[in-house]
Structure formats: C-alpha cells, structure tokens
Amino acid sequence: MMPQSQPPEQRSIFFAGVTPVIPAETLLALFSQFGPVQSINLFKPWAGSKTSKGCGIVVFVERHSAAAALDALNGNFQWPGARSPMVVEWMDSNKQHKKARAQPLSFAMMQQQPQQQHYITMQPRPNAGLMMPGQLCIHSNGQQQLLM
Asked: What is the DSSP letter of 9?
C-alpha cells in the first residue's frame, strides 16, 4: 500500500442512497475504479445484519481519487431498485458534530440509550481488479452494468 500523504479526513467521503442488499464487495469494486481504497465502512442496522443502512464512509489512499469518485457518482449514479441517485459528499467531521449539537434533545430522547452504529470494514484484496458476479462495472462511456 502506498504511503498516505494527507490525513484520512481529507481522503474520506460519505455515501448514501445504496440499496441495502448491495454487498460491501460490490461497493469496493465501484469505488476502486477511481483509485486505491484504504477502507470502506458500510453501516449496518445491527451486528451480523445481512443488509446495510445504505450508507457509509470510504477512505481512499489519495485525495484525488476521492475527488474523482465524488465528481462521477454524486447525483449521477443510481443503483437498481433505488428511489434516487447516490449522494456522495466529503466527510466533514466538523459538520457532523455541529449537526449533533444543533439538534434539540427532548426528554424522551434523553431517556433512550444511545443507539450503537454497526459497520463492517473492507480492506481491498490483491485481486480486487478482477470483475466478479455482483460487482458493478462502469464503462469508459459512462454506461453502468451490474455483473451477474
């Protein structure tokens, strides 16, 4: 793996709008087309769940790869069965903290236990460049194809 020249928060993007049944391997194949991926965190509703929440975080090895994925996918790519195209944004931890502080807490919310986030982390495999069934192929002309 190449050394990372930028901190992870400058190479991380948030994604949403993924059909919950899409496996992490398919997401890895999609994002790897834009450059080497350090990790993918696909949020799960609970540990061991076979489906996801349809969102997560990708950390690329290089910032320019993250920028290329954001430019190509945000609002332009829609999964089969999804209601709308993917949302892909820079991961802004300050923005996330501000949102959390800005939301008023009701008495009922304060009584609840904090909900735990479950996710899986995928590390790229040496053969990640091989296309396999269930992976998404994006052709140079922009056409998208889910391999069966």
From this structure: G
Q: What is the pLDDT of residues 106-123, one digit of tens each?
A: 434 444 444 444 444 444
Contact 28, 128 (CB under 8 A): yes
Q: CA dist 112 to 107, 108, 118, Å?
A: 9, 7, 18
Q: How do residues 29-52 score in pLDDT, each as one tens digit? A: 999 999 999 999 999 998 888 899
And the tokens for 38? 């350090």
Alpha carbon distance 42, 53 (integer Å)? 8
Question: What residues in the chain have per-residue pLDDT under 50?
Answer: 1, 97, 99-133, 135, 139-141, 148
Quickly tell me which residue has 């609002």 as its tokens. Answer: 75
Dihedral over alpha carbons 91, 92, 97, 102 (to 10 degrees)? -110
Quick one: tokens of 144? Answer: 């998208």
Could you count the other beta carbons within 10 Å of the beta carbon of residue 105?
Answer: 8
Q: Say how far apart CA 77 and CA 86 lie, in whole Å.
A: 6
